[in-house]
Amino acid sequence: MLLTLKKSLLVASGLFCLSWNAFAQANPLQDFVNSLHTFEANFAQQTLEDSPFSSANPPKTGHFQLLRPGKLVWEYSAKDAQRIVVDGQNLWVLDKDLEQVTVRPIAEVQADIPLSWLLYDEKIQDKFTIIFAGERQGMVWYNLTPKAATYFQSIEVGLKAGVMQQVLMYEGPENITKINFSQVQINQPIAPQNFEFTLPQDLDVIGQPSER
């Protein structure tokens, strides 16, 4: 009886290891990233209250372009008047309302970019702990918790048919940002010059860019 129980536990343990290894080797989120060269979509960004299922605040809208590795443009609509550019060397933030540009070398801020896991040719698990977060709203979800300290606690990514459709960023239990993507295009040509930042005249510049 005892010998049979031990054998059963060993078999169960072996099956668990096989299942975990299969999950680790067939990670749809990493597969999505590995297959990606460009990503372009409209977005609606909303600050939530209490839970990711509330919708208390109106969203900010804009357009997102990504060119892997290392380049993105995140531009809010005219009423919000902000443009964020990662050009491969620096992170630029143009704020028209404040009439200023902020710039930081990527080497200094990479960990604080919420989409850094998508932007660079690195295994996600090198920088994040990945947890399968189940299925809801017709999407398969993965939770990414940074292994190094950063300003956000975790990110949840929702995939539909293997493509990113929604992101939830948790800065705290009552500080959640929800981003919905629409009109998604992947691996379509995007002009490289879209990711070049031209410094507008007569604006204050805060920070010092890294030289190429």
TrEMBL record:
One of its GO terms (biological process) is lipoprotein transport. SUPFAM superfamilies: Prokaryotic lipoproteins and lipoprotein localization factors (SSF89392). Keywords: Chaperone, Lipoprotein, Periplasm, Protein transport, Signal, Transport. The keyword Chaperone applies. GO terms for cellular component: periplasmic space. Gene3D superfamilies: Lipoprotein localisation LolA/LolB/LppX. It comes from the Bacteria. It is found in: Periplasm. Residues 1-24 form the signal peptide. The keyword Magnesium does not apply. HAMAP family: LolA (MF_00240). Belongs to the LolA family. Participates in the translocation of lipoproteins from the inner membrane to the outer membrane. Only forms a complex with a lipoprotein if the residue after the N-terminal Cys is not an aspartate (The Asp acts as a targeting signal to indicate that the lipoprotein should stay in the inner membrane). Monomer. This is Outer-membrane lipoprotein carrier protein. It comes from Thiosulfatimonas sediminis. The lineage of its organism: Bacteria, Pseudomonadati, Pseudomonadota, Gammaproteobacteria, Thiotrichales.
